[in-house]
Amino acid sequence: MRTSILLIFALSIIAGCKTSKTTISDSHPIHALVTSQNFEFTATSASPMVTQSMTAIANSGLIAPGNTVSRIDLNGNGGFLKIEGDSVSANLPYYGERQFGGGYGTTAGIEFNGLPDNYIQEFNNDKQKYTIIFQINDSSDRYMVYVDIFPNMSSVVSVNMANRNAIQYNGRVNSSKEVQ
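RE: above sequence
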């Protein structure tokens, strides 16, 4: 009798522990924001690739208090990625390793402005998020950019580069009009 009560109790707990999937409607503000192609991502933190060199920098005390080698606070930094119509621009700080030597006068961060190549924008109904993918060049590097935008307007931007290690940024998106 006792084991059957425990078995029923355990099964009811397991049955009650399913995830609830909420779907956002077509009238949700995220749809209007992303389809307008007039919004700005503001970075709040950076997550560089953790390598032996980055760990050595962290162990030497060169990372500011409150930061770690895998998460660097960017609040107040002004790092952004803007999508305005058919053009994109970005000015994001970069933390990580360069694979090839850089020349004098090259930017230390991720900076580009222009028309992207292979721009893809789609809504993933299963994961309830927008994904934007594009490539763009500047004078010294080629960037492959992945942007995930969630219904609460939080966003993750991942940047892969030809000459530097990948980096990821967390932040929020807003209409370009709200940011100004």
